[in-house]
Amino acid sequence: MKLGYYPGCSLHSTAKEYNMATEAVFDALGFELTELPEWNCCGATAGHSTDRFLALALPLRNLVIAEAEQQKELVLPCAACYNLVKAADHYVREGTPEAKDANEELKGIMGAAYNATVHVTHPLEVIMRKEIIGRVEPEVKKPLTGLKVVPYYGCLLTRPTYVAFDDVEQPQAMDKLMKMTGADVKRWSYKTDCCGGSLTVPRTDVVYEITKKLVTAAQRADADAIVTACPLCQMTLDTRQKEIEKPIPIFFFTELLGISFGHPEAKKWMKKHIIDPIPLLTSLHLL
After folding, report:
1. Integer distance in angstroms from the first to the last C-alpha of the chain?
2. Which of 95, 114, 136, 147 is nearest to 283 (CA)?
3. Are 208 and 196 in contact (CB under 8 A)?
4. DSSP conformational letter for 36
5. Start and end of every Cysteine-rich domain (predicted)?
6. I want to staple 223 with a disulfide (CB 3.0 to 4.6 A). Which of 28, 102, 184, 218 is the partner?
7. CATH architecture of 138-283
8. 270 close to 287: Cβ distance less than 8 angstroms
9. pTM, two decimal places
10. What dotted CATH number matches 2-124?
């Protein structure tokens, strides 16, 4: 089955491992991800905060391309990209004046407007569907026995509510998936807190404090690692642990799925991390 695929800037740069793992997992589950041709940056995190028009026009241009390619579904692994594109789709469906203006201008530039025929989705949403979730456990060749994790959704997958595909207060998709891999999923109270990623440049001091709070909370929950579905969260938590005595790895959820599937390239994904996860994984005989 083919699905439209929008990797966004992060998955072609700082989060290449997320891209590789996502493609590997979807291939194992019977999907072919078709990358959107000539896609542009969605505008996160700078564009949408400085120009309201760009916040709509940049995502809408990608949706116009998706419609031209007859892609009924567009998968966006990056939580920031997903949030912005999902919001633009929502505004068009709601018929807001700003969306109408942006759509009209795009029609003049591209020769087509967005007609709201594309389902904007996140990999977690796709995998959790009733007809797909049953494919996961049969693919688990190497259960993640002994790996203690806390799922971290961040703020962009659950807020605002119209972008959410899971419970906004207590999301469960990653929890369920990690349990299916055999990982020991710990409970904690920080799964939808913001990582502070957008403050990385202007207020690094604040980001260090937020990272310390989150990592310390994960360790108090007896977790060995944090698992996320957002490149911004992963990069922030992976690079801001210098003040923490015992830093812990920050995984993408598809990386752990891929390891449990026994994917031969999984060890290569781990080499992209700042906090090296290989010692933890080898100690548990998972790599």
Report:
1. 30
2. 147
3. no
4. P
5. 4-84, 152-238
6. 218
7. 3-Layer(aba) Sandwich (3.40)
8. yes
9. 0.96
10. 1.20.1050.140
pLDDT tens-digit readout, 172-231: 999 999 999 999 999 999 999 999 988 877 788 999 999 999 999 999 999 999 999 999
When computed from its CA atoms, the radius of gyration of the chain, rounded to whole angstroms, is 19
Q: Which residue shows structure tokens 């605002």?
A: 160
In the chain, CATH 3.40.50.11810 sits at 138-283
The 10s digit of each residue's pLDDT in 100-157 is 999 999 999 999 999 999 999 999 999 999 999 999 999 999 999 999 999 999 999 9
> Tokens 């992963």 appear where?
234
What count of other Cβ atoms lies within 10 Å of the Cβ of residue 162? 12
Burial zone of 184 (CB within 10 Å; 0-12 exposed, 13-18 middle, 19+ buried) = middle
Q: What is the mean pLDDT of the chain?
A: 95
Between CA 195 and CA 254 the distance in angstroms is 20
- Around 257, how many Cα atoms within 13 Å sit in the side-chain half-sphere? 31
Six-digit token pair at 154?
A: 């961040």
Q: Where in the chain is the domain with CATH 1.20.1050.140?
A: 2-124
Under DSSP, is residue 228 helix (H, G, I), strand (E, B) or coil?
strand
> Cα–Cα distance between 221 and 279 in angstroms, integer?
21
- The Cα diameter of the chain in Å comes to 58
Spell out where 104-224 has E strands. Answer: 119-121, 148-152, 184-185
